[in-house]
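Entries read sequence, tokenised fold; example below:

***
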Amino acid sequence: MEEKSKKDHRALLNQGEENELEVFGYRTQNLRRALCLITTMLTCGVLLLVFYWKPQWRVWANCNPCPLQEADTVLLRTTDEFQRYTRKKVICLYLATLKFPISKNPEEPLVADRHSVINHAVLKPELKLRYIQVRKIRYVWDYLEKRFQKVGLLEDSNSCYDIHHTFGLGLTSEEQEVRRLVCGPNAIEVEIQPIWKLLIKQVLNPFYIFQLFSVCLWFSEDYKEYAFAIIIMSITSIALTVYDLREQSVKLHHLVESHNSITVSVCGRRGKSHYFRSVCCS
């Protein structure tokens, strides 16, 4: 029983691929959160700073391990020698928010493609879907396979006949809305990082926190020249780094934004053709 619980607690994302990740399930515990909040206030925010540097410690302190199916927080760990951790919240979507009625019968598929993970990812009759967003890719919880899977892809199990037979006449407007909600927008959006956010990230770097303690130490020992030298060098270093990161962010945003405007012709099921202006990232 214990081995099964451990197995349900851990899984692999993108198994065998270059971006393979381990994923661990955790559930937030209110008592633990309250204790962490009290400790944060008693330490004047030092604990919060430590949690910022070590996201896995934050999860371990606030949450209890649980099966991935019940998790509201997951911890991702790279499978390379560095084993870096990332914390992600499990987000819930409810298809009941759509403007048209959806069948709550578990036997009826939501989308025409019988191989689609969407049919296994929506829990009926609640019409609930759970997912995590990792590196701009959405992974939904597959209740049949009991693991997180990429969504929005054309399944490899589809034959050419399946593709033409299922998608040849296009998708109904209802299925389009379901896919749009479950898979998210079909776009690559690169946000320009605000300067204040870049500045905070740099200031909270462990190196500059150490420099702050060094400055306090030099001032306490009345070595003002050393303290001012450290302050000037740190401010200069932070300013140059923020400027460089901001420039890179703007360039990447403009690179992704560069596109060719095209007209897309979409054939509907009833023989109607619709024309849309679309963008194609270059």
Summary: The two ends are 52 Å apart (CA to CA). The first strand starts at residue 10 and ends at 13.
